[in-house]
Design goal:
The protein is an alpha/beta fold. Helices cover 43% and strands 31% of the residues. It contains four helices and five strands; from the N terminus they run E-E-H-E-H-E-H-E-H. Helix 1 links the parallel strand 2 (11-20) and strand 3 (43-54). The chain is globular, with a radius of gyration of 12 Å. The model has no long low-confidence stretch (mean pLDDT 95).
Length: 111
């Protein structure tokens, strides 16, 4: 499945459906960079509601988007994480960079 991109206010919401592997990470990287460079979006929400797997490529794509939003004084959020995704976020150290919220609506209220 392909990732779904949605813009709400100054947030780019990326819904990852299925596995966040090398193939999916490349798709997200290319399209997210286009959105972030061509607009005034400064916050990114990764929606993991339908994500079944994430490998190191997924960690890399999240880290890259974090660096982009940080330069714009924005934030990166992760929502709807299952136990497997939470574990990878914790082990990789991303939990220090990513704001965890329960839902997209909770992340939108954070700013």
């Amino acid at each position: 499945m392909n990732p779904v991109f949605e813009i709400r206010r100054n947030y780019l919401i990326i819904t990852v459906d299925g596995e966040l592997d090398h193939y999916m990470a490349d798709q997200i990287r290319l399209k997210a960079d286009t959105y972030l460079e061509g607009t005034r979006i400064k916050n990114v929400i990764f929606n993991f509601q339908h994500t079944t797997f994430m490998d190191s490529s997924g960690v890399g794509v999240i880290m890259g988007r974090y660096k982009q939003v940080r330069r714009m004084k924005g934030k990166l959020y992760a929502v709807h994480m299952n136990d497997s995704i939470k574990r990878i976020i914790l082990i990789s150290g991303l939990h220090k960079l990513v704001c965890e919220r329960d839902s997209i609506e909770d992340a939108l209220k954070s700013e």
